[in-house]
Structure prediction request, 1019 residues.
Amino acid sequence: MAAVFQFVDGIASSPGVLLDLNDATGVNAFALDADEPLDVSPPPLRKAIASTMAEDGEHVTASKYEDRTIKCTVNLIRAASTDAAATAVQNLSRQLAKETNLLKLQLHGATSPVFFRTKRASAYQLSMLRNRLTEAGQARLEIQAEPYALGLEESLGTITVNNDPAAGTNPLRFDIAAASVDGDEPTPLYMRTTSSLAGATVLIATRRRGAPASGVYFVQAENATNGTDTTDQADANASGGNEVRTTFGTSAYADRITAVLPSATAGADLAGQYRVFVRHQKSATGSVMRGRLRVAGVIDGPEVTIPDSTTYQLVDYGLLQVPFGSDVDRDGYGSPLAAVGVSCAVRLTRVSGSGSADSDYLLTLPADAEFAVVTWPSTPAGPAWVFDGPNDDVYWRGTAGTAHNVGATGGAFPSCRGGLPMVSPNQDNRVFFVVVAGAITQATALVTSYWPRYLTVRPAST
Amino acid sequence: MSLRVPISVRLINQRGDRRITRQLRDVSYDAGAPGGFKSAQMSLDRPIDYRPDELTPYTKCVIEETRNGGVLWDGRLDDPGRSVGGSGQIWELTAVGGAAHAHDRTLPHVFVDKLPDEWKPATASAKYIETSETDSNGEDAIQQKAPEGTTWTQNDYGEVVYRRLPDTGQRLARIVADWDSATSTPNNTIEIGVSVGVSDFSAIVDWAVWDGIGGNLIGVITTDWSAGTQYDVPYVLALRGGATVVVGNNAAQWFLPVVRTVLYSKSGSERTAASNYSSNTVRAYEVIEDLLGRILTEFDGAGALVETDTFDVDQWAYRQAVDSAQVLADAMVFHPGKRWLAWERNESGKYEFEWASWPTSTVRYEVPVIDGFDSPGSTADLVNYVNVLYIGGQGRPRHRRRTQTVELLDTAGVTGGQLIREAYIDLAEGAGSEANAIRAGDEHLAEHAFPASGATITIARPVLDRQTGRILMPWELPRHMPGHLIKALGVQSTRDVLNATGRDGETVYRITDVSFNAESAVAICSLDGAPATLGHAVASGRAPRAAASQAIGRRAA
Prediction:
């Protein structure tokens, strides 16, 4: 099979062809010049570098890929007449002049194509012999395109995430194995669900380094150490059927729950940054309660207000770094060091009222890759809630497959704070999906997929 | 960190919540102390022939960390600029942080006023009772006198009223007349009262007969009048209660006035309990809480951190309208060891606010200078004397001179003796009192006892936050660094303005400004303000510094 090199109308296995640039058997067509190189080199990498005479070497503060330039030479073949040849050139110009376009490339013998999202590239060289376009008409193209070549959409299936850390399957998260992610570079995840998220706030976090599955990301409050005025009790609405209740015999700030976070088990994969949540409810509304996380016995995090609700919801206690106070992950230039969890205390105070505070579990979500807080209005505009990583947006999808971004009654928009999740190839990925005020029985069915990113061309299945 | 800078930019208004990160050419933002989030700049490639919904002025602009969902910068758009050129059609977006709301409203304020110049004779005052300003043991007093030979009719009175509060919209909390009389007679009395608006007297709250000794007449809200009535005009009478008489040469009373206004709590409720007004002074933290509750409604007053203080300000009233930023700047003249900061909006949409002390002995960050460091240094701000100008009663300018010992200057004279370097402070007219002048002068001297550094440090790598135990990246530093202390590792010790008790001879600075640019991915910190002198500013290409202690002399434009 000859190489496929076409402008197409979509990233699909059989897209509509807008212009074939390698139609070796066609008439009034273009074909790649076999003696000229097809340049699909990886995109240039631009770096920001900090460098002074005070230190050997350079410090790369940040880097990013710039747009790539695809270079090729195509010959005009079997032109029936000069007018026909001019028509073919016009077709080429029209495709190159588009502000955005898609260029499909599948090399001779390759199993899978890649697609380049091109940009306007209508400045090209057109040459001919003896002033006759029908004789050796040739175009040298330099087509600007986005840095990554994209593979076909890879479905990860429908994944049901349960909003209970004690669930047997996908408790607050789901895993995407290394073998399930193709590509050369991390790529945004696309998720869509018809499970209602009306009025919900959703936390989405990722851990895509090391062995994410080896981590422990929550501690049941009844398994932690109870502090002042805090005792275990049963609660059918709590994870595992149990919670702890703080009755505030002492109203002032005191340690109510103590645990080593994120886990008491040391490990190299434990290191990182986390955002700590506690699932709270009040026994009755009307009391004013506040909390803060005390880390390592000395550092108090920001003060938070416990929502005035008798329904469980997660409360954000701020960021925690493990190991505490250090960025060192190796022994000199040697082996990775195992990180140790940090002793943390949930401190609560009751400012006014007489209610009690219930705590179900402590959750430590990774906060060093991507972390998003998505808030959905209570009135949706379509049957599907979409977390569109490739387009960095959240919206409803309507019944006709169109995108909406306005509540059905108008004026209410979904908002996304932070970064939507990505997945890494050749690496196990764990994606956390947590509904902040959702019941433990809530389950969200996520139709999940991604488009693999490549720096040049791709192999058959990775 | 050598990957893309993990930040995202959102624009939010009633028409949408849009993430525009991918459309930006560049983005930079900064924060400082005082003020918190200051400004953000970004360029956006969009056609300029129509205005997108998200680019309208006052659209919220939030810059977030994509790794952990935290807020890096929060503010609102100014009216964006547009251009067409070789780079295409570009919208230049500038956003300002919550600190900008301190400039939203320009109003006159009275917190405590003891100057006599706003006391004027009332319409109903007997015209033959003369009112004048006088000196009473060095203080500015108001005198009411029936001239010798005048027939003082029974029940006639001289009345003076304080008329400022109907202009400011505030109401009366405390009125004091520290009075005396030239003679003793039970036939004449001094009386203080309160009124709604400038009208005839309606409520006498305290009085005394002339005894030639004097005393204090005091009226306080809730104790002496109902908090439910909006009294806003205090008055003082010199009343002839006895029979009509032709007076001699001692028919005079005089008094030192003090007027205090009702303050708001930071939560927005009026503080009408009498216990709030038990003295003739006000404290800076009370004024700041009043601003939060009454005017700075964009800030989260209820959740604000406002540190208390114990310095009693006996004169704090603005004759001309000022914005809240000026009031806060004047508070920092009394307390240069404190700073105010406005950060991101909370769930209620209000900016987090704090008025708190600069740390004096806790170094939160230690940063090597290997990515860049510039400290021009200067002794230009070093002073051992200061002259403080303030305007007292009758508009009379007065000075107070203060001094301190500065070791460097003690032997810097030509002959090896003391070199006198004397600064000058012009207190705003409304803050004119001897006590304020002394305070401002002493605080200014303390701030300028050591050579200023005016340093900048470039940070291109992770930094340990010694308070939280977290490693911060350069793009996080504008949010977390301003208002704290930093130690620059690798710099010879140089002392500076801190008088930090925990200092050990190494270099410790206040972090007064931090900016981050996504293109270079580095943060630049200004330490102890910008370079001290114009000469240094020209040399280094930066704007000169205006010390906080001089801000109080700069009235709002």
Observations:
- The helical segments of chain B are 164-168, 284-294, 324-334, 407-410, 434-447, 477-480, 534-540, 548-551.
- Confidence is low (pLDDT under 50) at residues 494-506, 530-557 of chain B.
- Residues 102 and 266 of chain B are 15 Å apart (CA to CA).
- The longest strand of chain B covers residues 184-195.
